[in-house]
UniProtKB/TrEMBL annotation:
SUPFAM superfamilies in alphabetical order: YceI-like
Gene3D superfamilies the record matches: Lipid/polyisoprenoid-binding, YceI-like
Pfam families: YceI
Organism: Arthrobacter livingstonensis
PANTHER family: PROTEIN YCEI
Xref: InterPro entries: Lipid/polyisoprenoid-bd_YceI, TTHA0802/YceI-like_sf
Name the UniProt record assigns to this protein: Polyisoprenoid-binding protein
Domain Lipid/polyisoprenoid-binding YceI-like: 14-183
Similarity annotation: Belongs to the UPF0312 family.
Length: 186
């Protein structure tokens, strides 16, 4: 189902990310042979949508670095150190949109400033609108999914170890994955 401009206009409002039904994740290549997936378990965000004029729409998201979860406590602990994200000095990651564009159909691009470890860079998230529904509790929900790639070294996250066979332990290229369910405020 492709959303029409008229249908999108009905979605105007302020939405809070439902963290219990959303995921902010990442993927990194490990030892050049496999991928390690992780996520942030503690995050919040707000989207203010103007379905008639997307230039008036905004998105803000903050994730707590200490909540990083790769299903391996030792690795998670290392990721919280200064070698990677330095949770003590930089307790959160944040994204603030600078523009939202309807590319066509259910495709949108959300450009903005991503801040990691005290460094802010512009990134664009291509997102696909997954739909809108009223849940059994009467909440109006919308869903979006998408991913983008960054180079972690550009954010001062440069720890690595060379491999005997060539290459490095952890890829510089990181994929950030978003699966978002947001609830409209009353």
């Amino acid at each position: 189902m492709t959303i029409t401009t008229t249908e999108f206009a009905t979605l105007t409002g302020t939405y809070a990310i439902d963290a219990a039904h959303s995921r902010i994740g990442f993927v990194a290549r490990h030892a050049m042979v496999t991928k390690v997936r992780g996520s942030f378990n503690d995050f919040e965000g707000t989207a203010v949508l103007d379905g008639s004029d997307l230039s008036k729409s905004t998105v803000t998201v903050t994730a707590q670095v200490a909540s990083i979860d790769t299903r391996n406590e030792q690795r998670d602990g290392h990721l919280r150190t200064n070698d990677f994200l330095d949770a003590e000095q930089f307790p959160d990651l944040s994204f603030t949109s600078t523009s939202i564009t309807h590319v066509g159909g259910n495709e949108f691009e959300v450009a903005g400033d991503l801040s990691i470890k005290g460094v802010t860079k512009s990134v664009t998230f291509p997102l696909e609108f997954q739909g809108a529904a009223t849940d059994p509790f009467g909440n109006d929900r919308i869903g979006f999914e998408g991913a983008t790639q960054i180079l972690r070294s550009e954010y001062g996250v440069s720890f690595n170890a060379p491999l005997e066979t060539g290459g490095v332990l952890v890829s510089d290229k990181i994929t950030i994955e978003l699966e978002i369910s947001a609830v409209k405020s009353a």
